[in-house]
Amino acid sequence: MDKTIKYIREQTKLEPEIGIVLGSGLGDFADSIEDKIEIAYKDIPGFPVSTVKGHDGKLIFGKINSKNVCLMKGRIHFYEGYDMSDVIYPIRVLADLGVKTLILTNAAGGVNTDFNPADLMIITDHINLMGKNPLIGPNDEELGPRFPDMTDLYTPELVDLAENSAKKLGIGIRKGVYMYFTGPSYETAAEVRMARILGADAVGMSTVPEAIVARHRGLKILGISTITNMSTGILDTPLDHAEVVEVGNLVAGKFKELLNEIIEEI
Ligand code: HPA
Fold it and tell me: Whole-model pTM?
């Protein structure tokens, strides 16, 4: 970790207060950033490299609405074959760089039948269905507690702030519980029914490990999902990654507008 931080510090002295993980479709959010400095994951010692198509791996430092930010363009998914320690490594880096607020964005399948593709959902809580926890292993008490509390994991003030920002912009917004499946296969129809019975509004393949680690480090967390599709079994059509990407891109405009407003208000 020391080598990672040292290398990043050599490239930029900017101290980010907000970290933003960009999910599918949001990659070009970085275009609006001022005083931009980009660092490719592959150049950062110790940093894992994302392999998913459309996830181009770099950290982007700069200013948005005069706030110092660090964007993660391209996240590391467990389903790519990485160890959990790699999946959460970038979040630990952001925390070490001084980030206080983490915004996690993702694409997710709608489980709540009131939802529609292209909806945005603020995550109010999550269900970790992977049966593993990213904090398994020795704990460094200096970084965070052995048994972190998960009350209000997604910071209620940020949920309210995001909801108010959406209202101000006239963007329809949902709130709900995100359930994490590791993927890469999409869920079965029976799993989606289970998810609904257990209280999930959306399902996805990211965000939860990152949120747990961010809480361990005491960060404030905001999570927002693009509902790119209805989950398996709800509609007659089979799921297709290309469609997920397409809807993600369609929604990107309003999502970026919302993110800008949120960053301004934080
Ligand atoms: N399931 C899991 N992850 C997803 C989905 C889905 O339906 N859509 C986008 N990411």
Answer: 0.96
